[in-house]
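Q: My labmate handed me this sequence with no annotations at all. I'd like to see what the chain might look like in three dimensions before we decide whether it's worth expressing. Could you predict it?
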Amino acid sequence: MNTHIKTTGITLTPAISEYVDKRLEKILNLLENDPTIQCDIELAKTTAHHHKGDIFKAEVHIVGAGKNIFAKAEKDDLYAAIDIVREEILREIRSGKGKRISLIRRSGARVKNLVKGLMPWGKKTGI
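A: Here is what I predict for the chain of 127 residues:
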């Protein structure tokens, strides 16, 4: 997975970069280390004039291998925003995996019912 970190309004320190990499390890494992997947991360300070409120934003956009996943979070702490965005991405990936498995099981059941209806199992045919 190719990752690209973009910052707006803040500087990318080694501590922030290391924290983002550490938090993305689980996502990387769920995506099976596919090199065709592109992960764009944007970390930003949304406003400079607020004394209170949501001022840090974290966005993650994952594209490739039939996936298009996006998550965004705004919090008063940059690290908290990164954590929330990570949980949203993990939820989306797991949800997609569950939907894919359900589709495979349903289609397999349809094929099985189709075969049962066309060819009776107890009788010998002259084939």
